[in-house]
Amino acid sequence: MTASRLMATPNGSTATFVASPFRAALIDLCFERGFSSLTVEQLCRRAGLGHAAFWHLYADLEDCFFQTCRAELLRYRRRAAASRAGLGEWRHRLRATAYALYRFLDEDERRRRFTVVEARAAGERPVLLIAEEIETLFDLIDEGRAEPTAPPSLTRATAESLGGGIFNEIYVAAAHRGPLPPEAQFVPKLMYSAVLPYLGQASASEELEIPPPVPSDLAYN
Asked: Per CATH, which fold does 3-220 belong to?
């Protein structure tokens, strides 16, 4: 079952209440103590709202996490789409996406840990959300097979292997407290690994020398 089929919640609540104090409180508390030890009482106290407000919006804590995680991922998707706007070449679109993801995760350590680390402990639906996001990354990488230089021996499994390795590096970096490695070091290495099987050594090595793109105002709205 995909996350898109799990959008409806038992009490019919949705993620439209994006400005809810519960959202900020949940992200803060997950960062401070972890989702697995969180209670509704603690969340309501931090949000400054009563239990009735919580139960009106959410079916349970996992539902609250799911809706908050979904809103955060939608925010990332808008940025990634804006960063790719007008780009035709696969390599350029992949690079723009990589930097959009890095910058989204780098801007707030609390949200980074929430979406990358804590989602694993918050039930099935957040895990499926993250899995769908990873599949989208696999899809983009797999477009490299259409490149003229791509060997015919490459398969979808190639993209899944590369994407899995990239996400694992992101997870390891996000799991450590403190800032991510500098983007000028982190992203080019990921790009090198991603384009090497499709474009060859020369193009992959070029990725190590390409400077980070200038942030776009559109991409950060």
From this structure: Tetracycline Repressor; domain 2 (1.10.357)
